[in-house]
Design goal:
Elements lengths: L6 E5 L3 H13 L3 E5 L2 H8 L6 E5 L7 H11 L4 E6 L4 H10 L3 E4 L4 H34 L7 H13 L6 E4 L6 H10 L8 E5 L8 H6 E2 L11 E2 L1 H4 L4 E5 L6 H13 L1 E3 L6 E3 L3 E6 L3 H6 L5 H7 L2 E4 L10 H16 L5 E2 L1 H9 L5 H15 L4 E2 L22 H15 L4 H8 L3 H10 L6
Helix pairs in contact: 2-3, 3-4, 13-15, 16-17, 17-18
């Protein structure tokens, strides 16, 4: 807590005590207020938030002990230091039992007063920071909820439980939309690094010319346009976790640079000769076959083994259809909270339709479909008609047997683009990927508007 943000109230009927303490503490940089009796003190406390109160015991009207009782009942988190010129063990014990932080006998040394205030404010600062960290963690954990009871998801959850407490590198594999980032977040927030940052890098969406500066950061004047120094992703993740999504999209040069960082545990900003140590855990994810890429010499073997210390594979939704009802229920609950629309659930016929659909876009596509149906639904239940955009035929019959994952992804992207009349922004939103990634996939699969 900054001294400028720390507020102190001095309550004493002697003006010389009030003013002397006020001057001492203001010179230290604190915001100081005064009150000459208990009634005035309680009135001031009702108008402003304070971190610390110095309270005299012997005062006309309400004495200090009674004021302390009221402060602790109304404002239990305010620290109170009792003051008196008539020291007695009895009054000190009583004050401490009620909740006083400390007990001072007048006159007291300004240096001791300064040291005591620093100690109390520092302690309060740590408490507030711990509360903020706890709130941040609880908020993050609410967003990390892996839904499912299938054997495949139970295996994933067991893997997260096993690997989270360790510090080994994890490679998460699975098709697009299966929830790889959710699993990465679950690992981070269950680990010893959970109070430190989780930095997410989408390797496929970084323009090739900016990858190095985004990851390593740069100094002011390092290149044209570098008007100020910038911390890179590696540095930002220090102490926490670095999640490298779409790791298979890294350029050969960045593969070399990443390997060096993982080996040396140090980085150097662009435009600087000074190296700095970094300590972060690496979790990476891909929907590509990295082993095959290693065989084809498009991905470094040494980097692959650095990243793939522990592998978690997330099965596609079509292989764990028993999770669909749970996921649909989960998404409807989320949408109700977000949109305030009173929809109680889904009809059995509509759910049956969702169970038959192959979901090439996996959980991400299911979530988007439920949201789309939720918006157009008019009754208490989402019906089959609300999913008319999925088509009336059994979609499983539309996909040839023996089709590869790449071919399936191409078919799905083409279908979404056609539905959106090749509106890239809208298609990217439905696919839950960024525009750059969609452009890269269109280029990869040679997809263009017909």
């Amino acid at each position: 807590m900054d001294k400028k943000n720390a507020s102190i109230l001095i309550v004493d009927d002697e003006i010389i005590v009030r003013e002397s303490m006020k001057n001492w503490l203001e010179e230290e940089g604190y915001l100081v207020f005064v009150a000459e009796n208990g009634d005035e003190a309680l009135s001031v406390l009702g108008k402003k938030e304070f971190d610390l109160v110095f309270l005299d015991i012997k005062m006309p009207g309400i004495d200090g002990i009674e004021v302390l009782k009221k402060i602790k009942s109304i404002y239990p988190f305010i620290d109170v230091v009792m003051m008196t010129a008539y020291a007695s063990i009895g009054s000190a014990v009583e004050a401490m039992k009620i909740g006083a932080y400390d007990y001072l006998t007048k006159p007291f040394d300004p240096e001791y007063l300064s040291m005591l205030v620093k100690k109390i404010i520092s302690h309060r600062s740590l408490e507030k920071e711990n509360v903020k960290l706890k709130e941040r963690l609880e908020s993050a954990l609410k967003q990390v909820h892996i839904v499912g009871e299938s054997d495949g998801i139970k295996k994933v959850l067991k893997a997260v439980e096993d690997v989270a407490p360790t510090d080994v590198s994890v490679l998460i594999t699975g098709e697009s939309g299966t929830g790889k980032e959710m699993v990465a977040r679950a690992i981070h927030y269950s680990s010893l690094r959970r109070f430190e940052p989780l930095v997410v890098v989408s390797c496929g969406s970084l323009p090739e010319g900016l990858i190095e500066s985004e990851l390593f950061g740069y100094e002011r004047g390092a290149f044209t346009g570098a008007l100020y120094k910038k911390k890179g992703k590696f540095e930002a993740a220090n102490g926490g976790t670095l999640f490298l999504d779409e790791i298979g999209e890294l350029t050969p040069k960045m593969q070399v640079d990443l390997l060096r960082v993982l080996q040396e545990k140090e980085i150097c900003r662009i435009g600087s000769n000074k190296t700095m140590k970094v300590d972060f855990r690496v979790i990476s994810a891909t929907n590509r076959d990295l082993k095959k890429m290693v065989e084809e010499k498009t991905f470094r073997e040494d980097l692959f083994y650095r990243l793939n210390v522990y592998n978690i594979h997330i099965p596609p939704l079509r292989e764990r259809k028993e999770d669909i009802p749970l996921l649909v229920e989960h998404f409807i609950k989320q949408l109700k909270r977000r949109m305030g629309k009173e929809i109680e659930g889904i009809t059995p016929q509509a759910l049956k339709k969702l169970m038959k659909y192959p979901w090439p876009g996996n959980v991400r596509e299911l979530e988007n479909a439920v949201e789309r149906a939720f918006v157009v639904a008019h009754g208490k239940l989402i019906t089959t008609e609300d999913f008319s955009f999925l088509g009336d035929r059994n979609p499983e019959l539309e996909i040839p047997s023996g089709i590869s994952l790449s071919e399936l992804e191409k078919i799905h992207i083409e279908k979404v683009l056609e539905e959106c009349d090749y509106n890239i922004s809208q298609a990217a939103k439905i696919l839950d990927i960024d525009r750059t990634t969609l452009y890269n996939k269109m280029k990869k699969y040679d997809i263009s508007k017909k």
